[in-house]
Amino acid sequence: MAVRLSPPDPADLHPIAGVELGFAAAGIRKATRPDLMLMRFAAGTQVAGVFTQNSFAAAPVQVCRSHLAAQAAIRGLVVNAGNANCGTGARGLQAAHDTCAAAAALIGCDAQQILPFSTGVILEHLPIDRLVAALPRCVSGLAKAHWAEAAAAIMTTDTVAKGASRRLDLNGTTVHVTGIAKGVGMLQPNMATMLAFIATDAAVSAPALQLMVSRVANRTFNRVTVDGDTSTNDSFVLIATGCATQAAGHPPIESEDDPAWQALYAAVTEVATVLAQSIARDGEGATKFITVEVAGARDEAEALKVARSIANSPLVKTALFASDPNLGRLIMAIGNAGVVGLDTRGVDLYLGAVHVIEHGERSARYREEDGAAAVAPDEISIRVLLGRGAGQCTVWTCDFSYDYVKINAEYRT
Amino acid sequence: MAVRLSPPDPADLHPIAGVELGFAAAGIRKATRPDLMLMRFAAGTQVAGVFTQNSFAAAPVQVCRSHLAAQAAIRGLVVNAGNANCGTGARGLQAAHDTCAAAAALIGCDAQQILPFSTGVILEHLPIDRLVAALPRCVSGLAKAHWAEAAAAIMTTDTVAKGASRRLDLNGTTVHVTGIAKGVGMLQPNMATMLAFIATDAAVSAPALQLMVSRVANRTFNRVTVDGDTSTNDSFVLIATGCATQAAGHPPIESEDDPAWQALYAAVTEVATVLAQSIARDGEGATKFITVEVAGARDEAEALKVARSIANSPLVKTALFASDPNLGRLIMAIGNAGVVGLDTRGVDLYLGAVHVIEHGERSARYREEDGAAAVAPDEISIRVLLGRGAGQCTVWTCDFSYDYVKINAEYRT
After folding, report:
1. pLDDT of residue A406
2. Which of A215, A323, B328, B331 has its Cβ near the most Cβ atoms within 10 Å?
3. Domain containing B119: what range?
């Protein structure tokens, strides 16, 4: 049950000139629903990505890194749901390469120009024959309008497809930003079983695009946490076809100093924020969407430590599931964040607009019923002021419910 | 429901010469059961302790640190269950001091010679009047045989009282080591809502005792984790009365180079290990007791990072609750441990005696039914070999069940 989250209206997802999408039911996840997705990009498209920090990076992640490092002109990507192709050794790497080779043959490019992505069960071999057999159907159905279907095809235990879109003016030309993502469990800092693909028809140089994808990831997907675990397959890819601005005769955006970079960055951040929040709203078993904001830290890193300590605490998350304003667990989580030399007398905490902790103690004006009212809704805001400096950050998470245990205890059965 | 854990048989808990214990129902936790405990120590007793690293260290922890730092000759301690006296500011500190003063007046010493401990709800003021009113009953009932009753009096959401005892020969004199603990939620590295008191009638100098308490904590209580949260009140105190060995004319143990130090350290470690494991067995909602052993790390700290990453992963813990040998989550947790430069091809993993991951991949001989059989019992062993060095460690934890959510969602209601 996702918290205030609906699938995107296909009409709201702007097509991106230079991006076509196709999908098919390959029978990797379930026989009856699409679980394979292919994107084809126009010549000249730039692609940049950020990937999991997990030591057991999956085979497709390794292949993506290698293809991007080789500065191949990426012409397409393939995503399968239902199998992560991770912990599968040389055979798994071969399967990822075979995926690229098959897609490349179909759309007429080199295998190195394809990026492969997988999500699903770990340590099982990818049924590469079924995947390859279904690829021609992806290609024959390629269309610019298929963003919503693509969002559905990459889902695993997601209950709602995730997509978002923006339109903006760059130097008199209308450009678009459209993205899709899948998330759910194993989510935490550094993205975790999350795949996100955001495309724009603006033109951006490779270094300017790499800077943008890193910075957006840090401000959005890396600020979502469901259970503190991170996956072996997370990937966030940013695609710039250039089809809109090049047609208007504009050169590619080369640097963050260009006002167009800033405008595009803002739009991509908006799309990524919607997608990141959607992932928390659809966290496994989520009944509450929780925003944790920390300010007054020495720096942003310190603020992030405190926000994650709260957002990852099972004790805080189970209390919020019960709509219990359990102040003790909140200060416990703040105190555990590893902030060196924290003077707790400088700490204030608000639940919504209710001032509950003042100078490190329960506020004299705090009434339990006010706290209870603040955590009763399905959207909860927690704000911590550390009183040490100007560092701040925001993290999104969800509560920990019976259904979280149920879903994760029964995931494979 | 604790995993294979029974309350200690009072007959198995050896009295410690120089330690008397009393208890009373003060009405702090529930009106009908003992929730206050006092220990009185013979003159000449040495006491050393280790305490929570949480920034919001509770008032009693602050007072304990100050009394121990002042090198006061500790003559007693007071423990209340039901209220943690944490986040209570100046009034909380005063309540902890008042506790010491009241106990000191009753047993005839200075307030500085008493150590106070509290466990329970955070951010509520300690009902000091009720505590002080009940102390005379603790004192009038003081007896050397009351270890089991003391273990019961300090429980909060523990379902089973925890105690252990050993007897050993030191240079021809029989000495004893007896300990009690309470644990349950908010457990993780660095001890967390855990109180443990271990006493011996051997004589140990202050520095040698401090070394022993730190080293024992590191090998036992700091190796238990229930949910990755740490509390504001954890304390582990080691008490050496010296009554047995001084009566025999032996001087105090002065240094770890003394073979008697090593023998006593081994016995205290055994008692602490039983207590620490008891805490994991009685973790909130626990249905499985899980031992995670990591070897082949560069050093012990690296082994500990990997063991804790596994033991704290909600995804691993929910899978084990379901008796699901979910190998993917195990390698995910290993990969998330932050081991720099981990070559996953060197990683092996066993569930019980079943070799499941070999050189970073699913073992060719692995059969799902063997894995399922290995995680079916209520005691599960996970062994990871990293293939990088000689560092190793063992961590104990429990699974994550529906009841964990239920207990924590309803704790205060």
Report:
1. 65
2. B331
3. 10-279
Q: Name the pLDDT band for A194 (thresholds 50, 70, 90).
A: confident
Domain boundary residue, one of B215, B245, B279:
B279
| Assembly ipTM | 0.75
pLDDT higher than 50, residue A186 = no
Interface of A with B in 157-216 (CB under 8 A): 185-186
Distances (CA, A) of B104 to A64, A146, A194, B135, B154: 69, 77, 59, 10, 20
Q: Is residue A4 part of a domain?
A: no
**In a domain? residue B323:** yes
Confidence of residue A336 (pLDDT cuts 50, 70, 90): confident
Res. B65: pLDDT tops 90: yes
Q: Could you tell me whether strands A36-41 and A19-24 are parallel, antiparallel, or unpaired per DSSP bridges?
A: antiparallel
Mean pLDDT of B387-410: 81
B10–chain A Cβ distance below 8 A for any pair = no
Tokens of A360: 């490190």
CA atoms of B214 and B114, how far apart (whole Å):
21
A227 and A314 housed in the same domain = no
Q: Clarify whether residues B266 and B301 are in a common domain.
A: no
| pLDDT number for residue B272 | 96
CATH code, domain with B348: 3.10.20.340
- CA A199 to chain CA mean position, Å: 14
Q: How many domains does chain A have?
A: 2
Name the pTM for this structure: 0.84
Rounded to a whole number of angstroms, the distance from the CA of A33 to the nearest CA of chain B is 24
Q: Do A56 and B123 touch (CB under 8 A)?
A: no
**Residue A403: closest C-alpha in chain B:** B402
- Residues B27, B62, single domain; the answer is yes
pLDDT of residue A413: 40
Instruction: Calculate how close chain A gets to B138, using CA atoms only, in Å.
Output: 29
Confirm whether A178 is a catalytic residue. Answer: no
Residues of A with Cβ-Cβ distance to B328 under 8 angstroms: 84, 86-87, 121-123, 232
Chain B residue whose CA is closest to A341:
B55
Of the candidates B52, B99, B156, B193, the residue annotated as catalytic is B193
Same domain, B309 and B366: yes
- First-residue to last-residue Cα distance in chain B: 20
Which residues of chain B are within 8 Å of residue A322 when distances are taken between CB atoms? 408-410, 413
Is A198's pLDDT higher than 90? Answer: yes
Q: Are residues A235 and A365 in the same domain?
A: no
In a shared domain, residues B60 and B188: yes
Answer with the one of A233, A253, A281 that is the final residue of a domain.
Answer: A281
Rounded Cα distance between B122 and B406, Å, is 19
Are residue A294 and residue A273 in the same domain, yes or no? Answer: no
C-alpha radius of gyration, chain A, whole number: 22
pLDDT digits (tens, 9 = 90+) for A21-57: 999 999 997 778 999 999 999 999 999 999 988 888 8
Using a CB–CB cutoff of 8 Å, tell me whether B351 touches chain A.
no
Indicate yes or no: CB of A412 within 8 angstroms of CB of B326.
yes
Whether residue A298 is found in the same domain as residue A265: no
Provide the Cα torsion B3, B9, B10, B16; round to 10°: -80
**A3 belongs to a structural domain:** no
The answer on pLDDT for A412 being more than 90 is no
**Amino acid A293: pLDDT:** 97
Is the torsion defined by CA of B329, B330, B331, B336 positive or negative? positive
Is B409 close to A315, i.e. CB distance below 8 A?
no
What confidence score (pLDDT) does residue A187 get? 41
